[in-house]
Design brief:
- The complex is a heterodimer of chains A (230) and B (243).
- Chain A is mainly alpha-helical.
- Chain A is built from 8 helices and no strands.
- In chain A, helix 1 crosses helix 4.
- Chain B is an alpha/beta fold and 243 residues long.
- In chain B, the strands form 2 sheets. In chain B, strands 6-7-8-3-9-10 form a 6-stranded mixed β-sheet, sandwiched between helices. Chain B has a 4-stranded antiparallel β-sheet with strand order 2-1-4-5, covered by helices on one side.
- In chain B, strand 1 and strand 2 form a beta hairpin.
- In chain B, helix 3 crosses helix 4, helix 3 runs parallel beside helix 5 and helix 5 packs parallel to helix 6.
- The radius of gyration of chain B is 18 Å and the shape is globular.
- Classes of the chains: A mainly alpha (230), B alpha/beta (243).
- Chains A and B meet through helix 5 and helix 6 of A and helix 2, strand 6 and helix 3 of B.
Chain lengths: 230, 243
């Protein structure tokens, strides 16, 4: 049965798949994870803030985002934002938002919601005595967060944050709805062009599987090394 | 130095933890606060540097009203050292960095000055060779001595101790108390919540006894250990001193 397969099509497509497709996928993953972490931390701080209004806004945002299918928002965002932009700026025609920018913003918005829950748990895992000691030394709230609480919360949560990033790496393949040549999109293009669907999709699955597996293994190794001894 | 006037504090709408507490600590004075658990003594000391808010009365620290909303609390707190029951060293920072952090970020000292100051204080508490270690590599007694050094690095005008030896194994208590005794003898203004009556006997000028949120007894050391006026203080002393 395997005799009918042409695995050479994969070899010929490798430069395109990795230099274009995988590069896009990894760039999107890295930027979305970074942006998600920054905004996620801010949202977590809002949720834990003593100002109830901030907490409620952040809580609503997280619930809202988590109640929507990611693929729908990617799609919706890409097609609607130009019109919203037009309406906001008062331009005469829909503003241009590239597929990359649009998908990046969507992923950051989603990851911010997920990361915020992780960071919230991380911050809550720090005993109340730590910020109290920081305050007693004269550190302001912001300094206490920056130098005492967040570094510890981040370290405690790093394995979970990285695991979420691996999920994000797989989720980036959803940009196929915008016909962006990420790794899966590139594989799919070659598959359809050459009529080699089975080979290409098998190969794509294998690549995602191997990368995610190796990364998970790395996270587990890291987990035992970075844990703060108490 | 520290004036506490008619302080009232509630947890929630009904539970009153501090009832009309009035006392003071003069410059250079060592005041020990004791009492059964739940008597509000830790709460009282945490109100002094506004780690806990109060709902009534006044606390004045070196002429600055602590419970005034206009008071710059971080600045005020940086001038008072505090030592906690559970040490609260920052576990992700090395010992020397624990001592440097607030010196640099709050007082704006240069890194090398903060390090020099930190090393001097570590030497003083006998832990100079541990500067590069992380807190978890030290014993409880050593961690508490680092915590005292960390507070002293800010050149505080007064020191607050919140049950500094309660979380320690018995054999480590004396090494911490020794540091505190030295400090007291050098003339540091100190307010100490503790059950260590030996320490109180050695260096305290006054002893305050609290029970159920009230200051029941506020007396010179000799009077307190001689003839406590209240039944409750007598009972407490007899229980704590018979061992």
């Amino acid at each position: 049965m395997l005799g009918n397969f042409d695995f050479d099509v994969i070899r010929r497509a490798l430069p395109y798949l990795f230099l274009e497709g995988m590069r896009f996928t990894l760039t999107l993953t890295a930027l979305a994870a970074f942006g998600g972490l920054v905004f996620g931390t801010l949202i977590a701080l809002m949720r834990l803030s003593s100002y109830k209004v901030l907490g409620r806004i952040a809580g609503f945002y997280v619930d809202f985002i988590r109640s929507l299918p990611l693929v729908l928002v990617i799609f919706w965002f890409y097609f609607l934002v130009p019109y919203i932009g037009q309406w906001v700026t008062g331009a005469s025609r829909p503003i241009t938002v590239g597929a990359f920018a649009s998908s990046l913003i969507t992923f950051i918005a989603f990851e911010a919601a997920y990361f915020s829950e992780i960071m919230r748990a991380g911050i809550q895992s720090i005993s109340k005595g730590q910020p109290a000691a920081a305050s007693a030394l004269g550190l302001t709230y912001a300094q206490s967060m920056r130098y005492v609480v967040l570094p510890q919360a981040f370290r405690n949560m790093l394995p979970v944050l990285l695991t979420q990033t691996i999920v994000l790496f797989q989720d980036t393949s959803l940009v196929y709805v915008l016909s962006i040549p990420d790794f899966l999109g590139a594989a799919s293009k070659v598959a359809q062009r050459d009529g080699r669907l089975v080979e290409m999709y098998l190969f794509a699955a294998l690549v995602y599987f191997v990368i995610s597996c190796v990364a998970s293994f790395g996270v587990r190794r890291l987990q035992s090394r970075i844990a703060i001894v108490r | 130095m520290i004036e506490i006037n008619h302080v009232n504090k509630w947890y929630g709408p009904t539970f009153q933890v501090l009832k009309d507490c009035t006392t003071s600590v003069a410059k250079g004075e060592v005041v020990v606060v004791c009492g059964p658990s739940g008597s509000g003594k830790s709460t009282l000391i945490k109100c002094v540097n506004a780690l806990e808010p109060i709902q009534g009365g006044d606390i004045v620290l070196d002429g600055v009203k602590v419970n005034d909303p206009k008071t710059d609390l971080p600045k005020l707190r940086s001038r008072v050292g505090m030592v906690f029951q559970h040490f609260e060293l920052f576990p992700h920072l090395r010992i020397i960095d624990n001592l440097r952090l607030a010196q640099e970020k709050v007082l704006g000292r240069k890194s090398e000055d903060a390090t020099a100051k930190g090393m001097k204080l570590l030497e003083r508490v006998g832990l100079k060779e541990h500067a590069k270690k992380f807190p978890a590599e030290l014993s409880g007694g050593q961690q508490q001595r680092v915590a005292i050094a960390r507070a002293l690095a800010m050149d505080p005008i007064a020191m607050l101790f919140d049950e500094p030896t309660s979380a320690l194994d018995p054999e480590m208590i004396s090494e911490v108390l020794d540091v505190m005794v030295d400090l007291a003898r050098e003339g540091m203004t100190m307010m100490v919540v503790t059950h260590e009556m030996g320490f109180a006997n050695k260096v305290a000028d006054r002893v305050i006894f609290m029970d159920r949120g009230e200051i029941v007894e506020d007396a010179k050391k000799a009077d307190f250990f001689g003839t406590p006026r209240s039944d409750r203080a007598q009972k407490f002393l007899s229980k704590i001193l018979q061992h």
